[in-house]
Amino acid sequence: MAAFPFSPPVRPLAGGAPHTVRLALVGDLDYEVGDEVLHQVLHALRGGEDVRDLRLDCQGLGTVDSAGLAVLLQIHRHTSEDGTGFHLDNMGPRLERLLHITGTYEYLTAPQQAAPSAGSAGSAGSVEEDPGTLDSGM
């Protein structure tokens, strides 16, 4: 349980690039707060104008259980569907270890650039900006 049970599990962070939502995850990410965290993150994404990137700062994150991992995967799925970049910043060794053990490290930390979803039309120009990203890592 978090040291301050009434502190919000998601806090907005100031600064950053335009069109970027920066949020800090604070305390434990577990069954008790997972739904609230998902709700707050999705609300922040929908509330911003032309959001292209989501950056989740994990420095204040405590224990992450399987429900918390599921929340991170759901957030990643939503950002992928929307063409929004997804980034986990300041991960501690416990979170990194969990992601490695569960086989989700590469999936959740691979560079995911902001891009329109596959079903969107009229956005071929964004691929031309950096064609090398399609071949990297292969």
Automatic annotation (TrEMBL):
Map out region (Disordered) in residue numbers: 113-138
What Pfam families does UniProt report for this protein, alphabetically? STAS_2
* Domain of life the protein comes from: Bacteria
Q: Which residues form the STAS domain?
A: 23-125
Source organism: Streptomyces hirsutus
| Residue ranges crossing the lipid bilayer per the database entry | none
| Compositionally biased intervals (Low complexity) | 113-126
Q: Which Gene3D superfamilies does this one have?
A: STAS domain
**Name of the protein:** STAS domain-containing protein
Signal peptide limits: none
